[in-house]
Specification:
The chain is α+β, with helices and mostly antiparallel strands. The chain has 3 helices and 4 strands. The protein has a single domain, classed as Beta-lactamase Inhibitory Protein, Chain:B, domain 1. It has helices spanning 2-25, 35-48, 57-61; strands at 70-75, 80-85, 91-95, 98-103. The longest helix has 24 residues, at 2-25. 9% of the residues are buried.
Length: 106
């Protein structure tokens, strides 16, 4: 019963995440930030920090990495696996709601 509840809750969280991603993707045109905007973004990034093992997907998106370009989800009989994929080739892997792997291109 607990696994079913966890799966249902994670599925609802994924649906909400995808809806917010679609809404932000429809927001409009991208532009090149100015130098002061880049400095402010770097300071904000440092303040929010990097993703850490054990975080939830929502916590990871509150870090410097922000929202992913794409999310992949796989549900099996005993787990929920999710991958947040970013444009720069970085990937965050989650299992049953917890961050288990951080992949960065070198």
């Amino acid at each position: 019963m607990t696994n079913v509840l966890i799966t249902v809750l994670m599925t609802l969280a994924i649906i909400a995440l995808r809806a917010s991603q679609q809404a932000s993707a429809q927001d409009g045109v991208q532009r090149v930030p100015s130098g002061s905007e880049q400095n402010a973004a770097a300071a904000d990034c440092e303040k929010r920090g990097q993703p850490k093992i054990g975080m939830t997907a929502l916590q990871a998106m509150d870090t410097c990495w922000g929202k992913p370009v794409r999310t992949e989800t796989r549900v099996t009989h005993d787990s929920l696996e999710e991958r947040l994929i970013y444009a720069n080739g970085r990937v965050l892997k989650f299992r049953n709601g917890a961050l288990t792997s951080i992949l960065e291109k070198q």
